[in-house]
Automatic annotation (TrEMBL):
SUPFAM superfamilies in alphabetical order: (Trans)glycosidases (SSF51445), E set domains (SSF81296), Glycosyl hydrolase domain (SSF51011)
Basic and acidic residues compositional bias, start-end: 120-131, 722-733
Name this protein carries in UniProt: Glycogen debranching protein GlgX
The organism's place on the tree of life at top rank: Bacteria
Ranges of residues in domain Glycosyl hydrolase family 13 catalytic: 177-621
Recorded name of the encoding gene: glgX
Length: 769
């Protein structure tokens, strides 16, 4: 390997600043990299011999031009490995950590190759191994002189992709959107209909079998966990685990190569990009949008004692948020050891450049921003008018995409649900908490004789969370679609585990079960964990507690699923919940790349029934405009003046409008929600909720103007007591149990109906002629 001789400082210039990154141009490449505090920067061209030895040629870059070092280098082609070495002061107290012994990734690289190992040379400061094998050293001590090139990933030159068909986005309206959060690898690793070489890959996600499942289910938009190139944290590697979720970004422009097929990986990073682009194209052809979960709040370099891989070595005080003290310390508002500093124009620029690249070159339809509060932090904390958030609203490439915020981080004032500007939507954690509380935590308390909460919080979430998303100028501009309604996500219990575990069981993570949330609001229905035989039925003359609990758990799952699908807002399902996926009580499976986290496609009878139920509920939402409102409700008629039907109304079990006392009574647990169709001829929907532990008799609400003076003839469309939606067909058992007096078509007028304990029913008004 070439010796690391000092590089003389080129003369500063103040000419035009070229585009950042390495771009093929003519017979070579144009190079530009930000390192505003450096005294010199080298482009390092790397070649690896068959025996693994790295041969390096260094080219000194010109500059800096407003902090950017640049040059044109002939003779460089696609597939060339490269990196940077940055010269400058090693002054940790001032936040300056320049060390030319460390090979640095290009933050704008379109492809990466290689892994990070735990060699001491990967740290910028001097480290050694302690008795346990961990690297220890003083981050404020001297710089480490060892060359890191053989122990870190390398950047790869990737040519612009010109052989793809044009991007034709499905452009699904927000009101029609059904999100499906999925992991590229975990979704298809066990899907036998996908050929084995394609399982767990970008190509496997776009296989006809995968697409058929998404389309049949009713998904319009798939939200993928991070596919930016990422690395596994050293403590996970030491335990034989991996960063399965991918929230440890090593490159914001490069796709994660291990998710590509073996053939694409062997063909090189350009082929990996092609496979990702092909995946997006095939999903578009099926009418499915692609949203990426992006982690622009921090990087894989971790805390100050972490590896010296890219941003830390190029411009540590610009890229990372510091606390302003002396000596300089990282300000960690993400819980990862570092946070990118969105007070800096160059950090905002890099993020916008990455988003535009994925939107224009790859063709994705939107982004979900992990820990998005960090992206809106200015000098005084979170600012809804932060330049980055303003850019998302005004950028002609980005402002028409689906933009979703995770509206919190772990810094001061970090919870900001409802405070992001339009056109952004937000994960609604208040929805998650309210639904779990009503259907699980409150009944758990009631089963022990303790009082829970009433219906007020649940009703607010069912109506679109105007208390959170209605504050805008002008008011109510964002609409209920700004609320991403979810009960589960990648972090936390699965839907099936919510009803089977009251305590997390994260022992497999190797952290003594200390990791993961303790605020789960779950209910095991009397027995912790899985049952011996979840398919068994009660035999006459015998009693087994598990056989009683299993159907109650399944009904609770259906209640949770229906609530998130039928509530006003944008529903988000977690992959596998529609088929009863379990993680055996692990609520933080971030490091579990195996069957524990992968979606299981081996469906027992009750899981097939759940899949049919979810499909049925999504079809109800799709077929009835009353369930897809894109505007907040006013409690007034939508249509002509003589039409007395409000857009939203609430009733008690006797069919009377709810009064003040009922709204504030913690023991009040039965509710009817009427939502009317937005256009003449649309069918109205009545959702009836029984959150009590007893069977209740309900008189369905009469709706003037719908069906004459006698009120509306309601048709039962679904009952959560049904194991399968077909139980309601042709006067089946489920329909007979739900109504005291129905006509042959399954309709009922103002007669009372019965609701099982902890259940819900959905009624449709008679078709208008």
């Amino acid at each position: 390997m070439q010796a690391l001789a000092p590089t003389p400082r080129p003369r500063p210039s103040h000419g035009p600043v070229p585009p950042l990154g390495v771009h093929l141009a003519g017979d070579g490449v144009d190079v530009a990299v930000l390192a505003s505090h450096a005294s010199a920067v080298d482009l390092c061209l790397l070649d690896v011999s068959p025996d693994g030895e790295i041969h390096e040629r260094r080219v000194a870059l010109d500059g800096p031009s407003y902090g950017v070092w640049h040059g044109r280098v002939p003779g460089v082609r696609e597939g060339q490995r490269y990196g940077f070495r940055a010269h400058g002061p090693w002054d940790p107290a001032a936040g300056l950590r320049y060390n030319p012994a460390k090979l640095l990734l290009d933050p704008y690289a379109r492809g990466l190759v290689g892994e990070l190992d735990e060699d001491p040379s990967t740290r910028g400061h001097v480290t050694e191994r302690d008795a346990s094998g961990a690297l220890v050293g003083d981050p404020g001590g001297p710089a480490d002189p060892r060359n890191s090139a053989a122990h870190v990933p390398h950047s790869i030159v990737v040519a612009p992709r010109t052989n793809h068909p044009p991007v034709r986005r499905p452009q699904v309206p927000w009101a029609d959107t059904v999100l499906y959060e999925a992991h590229v690898r975990g979704l298809t690793m066990q899907l036998e209909a996908v050929p084995e070489p394609l399982r767990g890959t970008y190509a496997g996600l776009a296989h006809p079998a995968t697409i058929a499942h998404l389309r049949d289910l009713g998904v319009t938009t798939i939200e993928l966990l991070p596919i930016h190139a990422f690395l596994s944290e050293p403590h996970l590697v030491a335990k034989g685990l991996t960063n399965y979720w991918g929230y440890s970004t090593a490159g914001f422009f490069a796709p994660h190569a291990p998710y590509a097929t073996r053939a694409a990986q062997e063909a090189g990073p350009g082929a990996v990009v092609d496979e990702v682009r092909g995946m997006v194209h095939l999903l578009h052809e099926a009418g499915i949008e692609v949203v990426l979960d992006v982690v622009h709040n921090h990087t894989c370099e971790g805390g100050v004692d972490g590896p010296h891989l890219s941003w830390r070595g190029l411009d540590n005080p610009v890229h990372y948020l510091h606390d302003g003290a002396t000596p300089a310390r990282l300000a960690d508002v993400t819980g990862t050891g570092n946070s990118l500093d969105f007070r800096r124009a160059r950090v905002v620029q890099a993020t916008l450049d990455s988003l535009r690249y994925w939107a224009q070159e790859i063709g994705v339809d939107g982004f979900r921003f992990d820990l998005a509060v960090t992206l809106g932090r200015g000098p005084s904390g979170f600012d809804p008018d932060h330049p980055f958030l303003v850019a998302l609203q005004t950028d002609p490439v980005l402002n028409g995409l689906k933009l979703i915020a995770e509206p919190w981080d772990v810094g001061p004032g970090g919870w900001r649900t409802g405070q992001f500007p339009a056109p952004m939507a937000e994960w609604n954690d208040r929805f998650r908490g309210a639904v779990r509380q009503f259907w699980l935590a409150d009944p758990r308390e009631a089963s022990h004789g303790r009082q829970g909460q009433g219906v007020r919080e649940l009703a607010t979430r069912l109506a679109g969370s105007a208390d959170l998303f209605g504050h805008s100028d002008p008011p109510l501009m964002r609409g209920p679609v700004a609320s991403i309604n979810f009960v589960t996500a990648h972090d936390g219990f699965t839907l099936a585990d919510l009803v089977a575990y009251e305590h997390k069981h994260n022992e497999a993570n190797g952290e003594g079960n200390r990791d993961g949330s303790d605020d789960n609001r779950s209910w095991n229905h009397g027995i912790e964990g899985r049952l011996q035989d979840e398919e068994a039925v009660l035999e006459h003359g015998g009693f087994e507690p598990g056989l009683v609990i299993a159907p109650l758990r399944r009904r609770s799952i259906r209640n949770l699923m229906a609530t998130q699908i039928l509530a006003a807002g944008s529903p988000m399902l977690t992959a596998g919940d529609e088929m009863g996926r379990t993680q055996r009580g692990n609520n933080n499976a971030y490091c579990q790349d195996g069957p524990l986290s992968w979606v299981s496609w081996d469906l027992s009878p009750w899981r097939k029934d759940l899949l049919a139920t979810t499909t049925h509920l999504l079809a109800l939402r799709r077929e009835h405009a009353a369930l897809r409102s894109d505007a907040f409700f006013h409690g007034r008629p939508r249509h002509a003046a003589e039409d007395a039907v409000p857009d939203l109304a609430w009733f008690d079990s006797a069919g009377r409008p709810l009064d003040h006392d009922a709204w504030h009574d913690p023991g009040f647990r039965v509710l009817q929600m009427l939502r009317t169709g937005p256009d003449e001829g649309d069918r109205d929907v009545l959702v009836v909720v029984n959150g009590a532990l007893d069977t209740v008799e309900v008189t369905l609400a009469e709706v003037p103007g719908r069906g004459g003076a006698a009120g509306c003839a309601w048709e039962l469309a679904w009952d959560s007591d049904w194991e399968h939606p077909t139980e309601g067909e042709h006067g089946g058992e489920g329909t007979e149990g739900a109504s005291a007096d129905q006509d042959p078509a399954g309709r009922t007028g103002a007669q009372p109906v019965l609701l099982e304990p902890l259940s819900m029913q959905v009624y449709l008004s008679a078709p208008q002629r």
